[in-house]
Amino acid sequence: MLQNNKKEKKSIRIARIKENVGEAMSFVEDSARACGLGKKETLSLVLAVEEIFLYLVPSGGPGQDVELLSIDGGYYLQTVFVFSDAELNLRAFNLTYQPEYGNEDDLTDVGLLLASRHVDRLRLTNEPNHMLRLVLTKEKQYRLPDEPFEGLPVKAGNAQVRPAGPRDAEHFALTALNYFERHKLPPFFYRPGKLADMLASGDYACAIATNETGHQAGGIVWRCRGVKTAECYGPYMFTKESDHHLDGRLLEFCLKDVARSPALNLINRYRGAGLPQSFFDELGAYSEYKENKGSSVQVVFFRQMCEDPGAAVWTSPLLDDFLLQEYRRLVLPREVEFVEEKNRPEPAEHSVLAADLNREENAATIRLFWPGKDLVQNVADHIRLFEAEGWLNLSAEVDLGLARQAGFAEALLKNGFMPRLILPHGGQGDVAVFRRQPALNDLVPEFVKSFEPYIPSRPPDVLKKQYHYQTLYHLNNNENALGPPPAAQKVLKEFNPFKASLYPSGDSYHLRRKLAACYNLHPDQFIVGNGANESITLLIKSFCEMGDNIVTADKTYGGYEWVARFSGIAARVTPLKNLTFDPGAIIEQIDSRTKIVFLCNPNNPTGTYWSLKVLTDFMEKINGRCMVVLDEAYIEFVDKTDFPDGMSLIRTYPNLVVFRTFSKMYGLAGLRIGYLAADNDVINIIHRTAVVYSVNAPAQEAAMAALGDREHILRTREMVAAGKNFLTREIRALGLEGSSGEGNYFNVKLPFSDSLAYRRMMQQGVMIRMMTPFRFPNSIRITIAKEDAMQACVAALAQTLKEH
Questions:
Q1: How far apart are CA 635 and CA 649, in angstroms?
Q2: Which of 159, 298, 336, 680 is 20 to 30 A from residue 436's alpha carbon, by CA?
Q3: All domains of the chain in start order, with CATH
């Protein structure tokens, strides 16, 4: 339907013109008349073409052939210039360009300045054989509805879904204007006649649902955004009935049509009130600001129409965190290539930015038109212009399929834009969407702007509903499949609900005493916290200030690096050596501003460890110059006789801090409770930054019941040993490389993307951990669990290999 209309409706005229500006103007004027463009719009486009033609072919200068194309889009007219990429100064296309009228060269450029303001959009792209393509778009003008009619909810009845013609679509848009707030509708709905022409052009398609009386009960619109991406709007329902399932039927009608196109993804930014959530994943959300100082949340959804084939993206290293997290969350197989500034070709003197202005949404979007040395300043100039003119919603789009746009991403970051979401295959490659909100921008510290929020996996009930399975095996977070020890389970089952109205012990008084007795230390040598990240935060707040740094490894638990960076503290990461921490590399990174070294022992995710000798030698070389954190989250799983016990070393090394947790061996991950131990003077300092009452009462009581349960520890170790033996044998049988260390996890190297494995195995009810965020690409980590989970995991992996 969409694809069939498109080729039939477009009208393309071509002319090759040399030096004769009058011929060019006549060509465009004739095209505008044939398109039905209004007199005012025609005059603007003809003037723009005249100025550009005179710039490309100056009077009395050397002539060159200029190919002109005219594309009648039904609701717009495009004039396309194809010309040689001889040295041209295109900076006058910038909305911010200000010529110096005493400068003859600048006066020559004024024509481009005028041209850029006489059209709705400009696009410049490279063509083969050193040619450029400049596209000018002028849209028809459509009036707003005179008087909105009163739309009443209709009965869905036995409604039928069918393709909509232009007049149907116009009525559909007019009805939607009466049922929905404007921020829930795409701007072209505001002018129903425009939607009718969009359908007639073949660029857009529409389906409507009509009941027995012929009244519209709802509808949906869609289009191809690019070669690989489609976009839909709605479905919008005009009935209050909740059991008619028309929303799903309308969406399925759309999906069937899009499936016949080359589109890999379907995006939805305007979902009305009837978008079935099970059909889509959420790309992201951002706020849209209104003239009355209010705001609304714009949520962008997407659906994969087929298996994503994977792609390479090119970008600045400054987008590392954002891209790795988004590709992990969206489970998209991507090879991220970072374009360092020193490796980029020498840019032109001046950059050019294109701006799309959407007055209905008070929104301005900028894109890179042409890179140049002044790009950072050019972005800043555009921001000042937009803010001075009162534009409230400023966006920018960076095409990650073009290596030359890496500098554009850096210029946006330096000017307060923040990456918010990725549109898969939205351009030549994926498109990163940036947003800038002036009121917030001045309040946010620079180091916070550069950090990305962590977005966890969706909860089990949502995943089960989405993937339609009864059993979901959680093999991604190193949780204990046996659950908490029996005594802890009993405490939780018998917990008095009335205690929920009372604050818990603010410093975990009783638990600290039990910890002290267990490790032969004083109670005041412990601080109990709400998970490991609170302990990390306490250490950094207590010992670090702006300008300081912490040191850790590049393939370890990411919390050390993350917490430091979003606290404004530099994080220095060292490479692993033989898959374990390298003492020499760490010491080389330590300087006078290094306050903390974070060591994960055994290391997550490699399972490697420092022996007692390696650790004590390291501590001697550090000689108290900085704090050393020994994270022993997995110590209860270790059997090695040369493994150090951090608790026993605290008396010897006053600068040593030991982390432990109840999340792993003791199965209390859902209660978020862990602790740190150190010299009493160190604890006294940390207490000054600690938040009291951060650990809830059930967690404290369950932890006391669980601590030291040897039978539970032995049962868990037996389960882990059996699981490792099983996986070692089965992974080898699949022809893959696998490794395990001292934790409760197993790593597998794959011959394809870990995100592909994640998605395929998730569809079979098995969640594993992608290792790209740990900087181990094409690898997965499997939590050791019970026999049935291990068998399901191997079966899912085998099926994934077979499909691949």
A1: 15
A2: 336
A3: 2-139 (3.30.565.10), 160-304 (3.40.630.30), 311-449 (3.40.630), 460-481+712-803 (3.90.1150.10), 487-706 (3.40.640.10)
